[in-house]
From TrEMBL:
It comes from the Eukaryota. It holds the Pfam family Aldo_ket_red. Residues 15-200 form the NADP-dependent oxidoreductase domain. InterPro entries: NAD(P)_OxRdtase_dom_sf, NADP_OxRdtase_dom. This is NADP-dependent oxidoreductase domain-containing protein. Gene3D superfamilies: NADP-dependent oxidoreductase domain (3.20.20.100).
Length: 217
């Protein structure tokens, strides 16, 4: 499915068979070119099928990670894939923990456009897949981001720090794949690694999530 939220059976005939992928990976491992294996944008079935078939190929390297989107606006990982990862001891490499910067609150300005140097403005049209997923004009996205921003303000932390800290507190997350173009942005991310989100913040976050579940699937 590669990150899609709805399964399209016709894609089966255009994708590379898992067996072919495993054969190529096995050759690369035996040649010493790679050490560990990870998947990206996978659904529970894909992950388990990969693990099942990998036994037939007797790979010397176990599948260790899956890299999927995970953030306050997209928690699809928890719906089924998290259970698979927990039992198979696979870690999540959470990409887009800031939802392409939306969770910083910078796009929630009076004109809904954000600063000119923001990624969605500076590179408008070059992130077609991401832009279709993270709809800035969506009422649910706006309302959810507004409430998460208010939670951050209530507890005296930046919205970015709250967003990253939420991702890092997940027991199956090994790391958050983030981007920063300014030193102060990096400081906010580093701060997220130092703080502990108390139970009352998690309760408020889950309350917002219950009212606006996964507005950026």
């Amino acid at each position: 499915m590669f990150g899609e939220t709805e399964y399209d059976p016709s894609c089966q005939y255009t994708s590379i068979p898992t067996e072919e992928q495993l054969e190529a990976l096995g050759r690369a491992i035996n040649a010493g070119k790679i050490r560990y294996i990870g998947l990206s944008n996978e659904a529970p079935y894909d992950l388990m099928k990969f693990l099942q078939l990998s036994k037939d190929f007797q790979l010397r390297s176990k599948l260790l990670t899956v890299q999927n989107s995970y953030n306050l606006l997209c928690r699809n990982f928890d719906s089924g894939l998290a259970e698979c990862c927990h039992h198979e001891r696979i870690s999540l490499l959470a990409y887009s923990p800031m939802a392409m910067g939306i969770l910083s609150g910078k796009y929630n300005s009076s004109d809904d456009c954000g600063p000119p140097e923001a990624r969605m403005n500076l590179f408008n049209g070059r992130y077609s897949e991401g832009e279709s997923q993270y709809k800035l004009q969506s009422p649910k996205v706006k309302l959810a981001v507004k409430e998460y921003t208010q939670i951050a303000a209530k507890y005296g932390i930046s919205p970015a720090t709250l967003a990253i800290a939420f991702v890092l507190r997940h027991p199956l997350v090994a790391l958050a794949v983030f981007g920063a173009t300014k030193s102060w942005q990096l400081c906010e991310v580093l701060q997220a690694a130092r703080i502990h989100l108390p139970e009352e913040i998690r309760v408020e976050i889950n309350d917002v999530h219950a009212r606006y579940p996964n507005p950026c699937p």
